[in-house]
Specification:
- It is a single chain.
- Helices cover 25% and strands 18% of the residues.
- The chain contains four helices and ten strands; from the N terminus they run αββββαββααββββ.
- A six-stranded antiparallel sheet has the order 5-6-10-7-8-9. It has a two-stranded antiparallel sheet with strand order 1-2. Strands 3-4 form a two-stranded antiparallel ribbon.
- Helix 1 packs across helix 3.
- It is globular, with a radius of gyration of 16 Å.
Length: 195
């Protein structure tokens, strides 16, 4: 295992433990400050490999949703799901949904998916939280290749449009309760792809 991989894995574990500060001795002393607790450590990327870029034609909701919702997904969403499965194996995932309570949702457009870590409706344990951060970090690291628009996890949001700001607080957009396991996206990683 490379030093970079070891550091990434170590930092993911430290962040998952929710420590305010820590010293990790892996090729030298390092620290984690309070601003890094609510997101992946600064500069951390997933060590699960690069996604193969989507080269298809962007389109509407034309492919049967492979997560079994009975709805549809876009070609880019289907590609993202295939790449996620290749890198992480099958995870509990749901994409298409009418989301009648949220007219701006990407789910009914076939561009939004939710990947559950732990038990739906409950805050995840340390292991599931770390696994979610690994997946969310991989999505961010591969955002261009996978046409990722934004990712929400653990009350934080990252978006392509505001990538220079990194992970920021997620407010629920006036639709969701950002303090609940579901509304704050503590029990699932949400990913939306570009049209």
């Amino acid at each position: 295992m490379s030093t970079a991989t070891t550091l990434t894995t170590t930092w993911t574990a430290v962040a998952a433990l929710g420590l305010i500060s820590a010293v990790v001795l892996v090729g030298g002393a390092m620290s984690l400050d309070a601003t890094q607790v609510d997101g992946p450590p600064a500069g951390a990327v997933s060590d699960t490999g690069d996604a193969v870029p989507f080269t298809g034609v962007s389109g509407g909701c034309t492919i049967s949703d492979p997560t079994g919702t009975g709805g549809c997904v876009t070609p880019a969403t289907a590609w993202l799901l295939q790449q996620a499965s290749a890198h992480f194996g099958r995870q509990p995932t749901s994409c298409w949904d009418a989301h009648a309570w949220n007219p701006t949702s990407d789910h009914p457009k076939g561009r939004g998916c939710d990947v559950t870590f732990g038990t739906a409706g409950r805050f995840p344990d340390v292991t599931d939280k770390a696994a979610g951060w690994t997946f969310a970090s991989w999505l961010v690291a591969n955002a261009r290749a996978l046409r990722v628009s934004y990712v929400i996890w653990q009350g934080r949001i990252w978006s392509t449009a505001r990538a220079d700001e990194g992970w920021r607080a997620y407010t629920g957009g006036g639709v969701y309760d950002p303090t609940s396991p579901v509304g704050g996206h503590y029990d699932h990683v949400h990913v939306s792809v570009l049209p």
